[in-house]
């Protein structure tokens, strides 16, 4: 899945096209569910992190992507322009969070001493 749309330049060896990009970098996506009173109030968060800095996130309570840094602004703008992407992310509250709550409940909530 290519988040930024179709690549506009053909692939090439990094040393040829991107000499400044020869070092190490980290990119991470983190999904998180927050529960209040079981599944009565559930919040889904998807965080996008680049080099240990959160650049953009989706919050199901807000319903769209929010840029956290200038680097995240183009991504938030692009993803917010895709109705199918927003619909998919909004549905994650039920599909991902509520579903996993039910699956994991015997090993988490019911296991408290």
UniProtKB/TrEMBL annotation:
It comes from Buteo japonicus. It is a single-pass type I membrane protein. Keywords: Adaptive immunity, Disulfide bond, Glycoprotein, Immunity, Membrane, MHC II, Transmembrane, Transmembrane helix. This is MHC class II beta chain N-terminal domain-containing protein. Transmembrane segments: none annotated. Gene3D superfamilies: Class II Histocompatibility Antigen, M Beta Chain, Chain B, domain 1. The keyword Glycoprotein applies. InterPro entries: MHC/Immunoglobulin, MHC_I/II-like_Ag-recog, MHC_II_a/b_N, MHC_II_b_N.
